[in-house]
Amino acid sequence: MAFDANGAVLAEPQGDAVVKVRDVVKFFGQLKVLDGVSLDVKAGDMVAIIGRSGSGKSTLLRCMNGLEDIQEGKIVICGHEVGYGQSNRADLRRDVGMVFQSYNLFPHLTVQRNITLALTLVKKKSKAEAQRLAEQVLDQVGLADKMLSYPEQLSGGQQQRVAIARSLALSPQVMLFDEVTSALDPELTVEVLRVMEDLAKGGMTMILVTHEMAFAQRVANQVVFMHKGKVWEAGPTRELFSSPKTSEFAQFIGTGL
Ligand SMILES: Nc1ncnc2c1ncn2[C@@H]1O[C@H](COP(=O)(O)OP(=O)(O)O)[C@@H](O)[C@H]1O
Ligand SMILES: [Mg+2]
User: Fold this and answer.
1) Domain locations along the chain
2) pTM summary value
3) Which CATH number fits domain 2-253: 3.10.450.50, 3.40.50.300, 3.90.230.10, 3.40.50.720?
4) pLDDT tens readout for residues 94-148
5) How far apart, in whole angstroms, are the C-alpha atoms of residue 33 and residue 227?
6) What is the CB < 6 Å shell around ligand 1?
7) What are the backbone dihedrals phi and psi of residue 14, each rounded to the nearest 5 degrees, phi first?
8) Nearest residue CA, atom 7 of ligand 1?
9) C-alpha 212 – ligand 1 centre gap (Å)
10) 214 CB-near residues (< 8 Å, 6+ apart)
11) Are 132 and 105 in contact (CB under 8 A)?
């Protein structure tokens, strides 16, 4: 790891970990939600985080994205240290994209405007450049023809793809996805998963919390099983699924829940 003159961590060279999580402890009040979590994500990795409800998956993602403070340990994402206060928020937003279960599109703005808003405000792009980028990312998620639609005119799956496009438009180095398909019907889930698979194939570094076990097994190259606020088991997908080391993980994949 490299440090600058003030002891701050510098951006990691390519090929090294894009996300480093070390011995992270996070409390909500008296409740220890993350209990010594460590994790490395390398450029181009697609990491699936799985585990029972309440095991700390969303909290871990939110900590990675600087949305939650931590009490112990260290998180460095795309060269930004996060977890203790809110410094460098704008830089972080530019480098790290996050998509949630709820799409959070602005209902009174067209699809195009939903996407260009952050480009003009956060990235200071010209209107023309922002519109060009919006076209490009909408094409990427298969919604080029919905540019001038309003969110309510779209299906849930289409809205979620717009949310992904909006995040992509900022050209993040890493994308975090938290159960982005869990509010969708199965047929709409498929189209969103396809977009994520395309992104993974295109080399995007991605960390996703998901209940879609078949998808995780097929597309993720690394899997992290969380249990009781800890990384209970983690490793290359095939290895992990073919020989569970703990009864908790075996039980989890046995029941599928
Ligand atoms: N903002 C919060 N305040 C208090 N407790 C929380 C908060 N967010 C999550 N928790 C608790 O932290 C634990 C982990 O939650 P979460 O990270 O959402 O788990 P998962 O995403 O794996 O279902 C749960 O016990 C949950 O109730
Ligand atoms: Mg969650």
Assistant:
1) 2-253
2) 0.90
3) 3.40.50.300
4) 899 999 988 889 999 999 999 999 899 888 899 999 999 999 999 999 999 999 9
5) 10
6) 28, 31, 33, 51, 53-59
7) -60, 145
8) 28
9) 20
10) none
11) no
